[in-house]
Design brief:
By secondary structure, this protein is α+β, with helices and mostly antiparallel strands. 34% of the residues lie in helices and 28% in strands.
Length: 53
């Protein structure tokens, strides 16, 4: 995998702010689950994926 492809793949991690339709004031954060490649890259970089989103 090239460096550009790895950076693009790491960029697919997302943090979404979700709202409940019946109670629009109630919100929560939903984080995507890292793939095995993303977990390995973050481990090599000694970074916590939740802290870089």
């Amino acid at each position: 995998m090239s460096f550009d492809a790895l950076i693009a793949h790491l960029g697919t991690l997302v943090r979404n702010t979700m709202r409940v339709p019946l109670h629009t004031k109630h919100r929560f954060m939903l984080h995507s689950t890292p793939t095995s490649v993303q977990e390995a890259a973050f481990k090599l970089l000694d970074l916590d994926p939740l802290r870089v989103q």
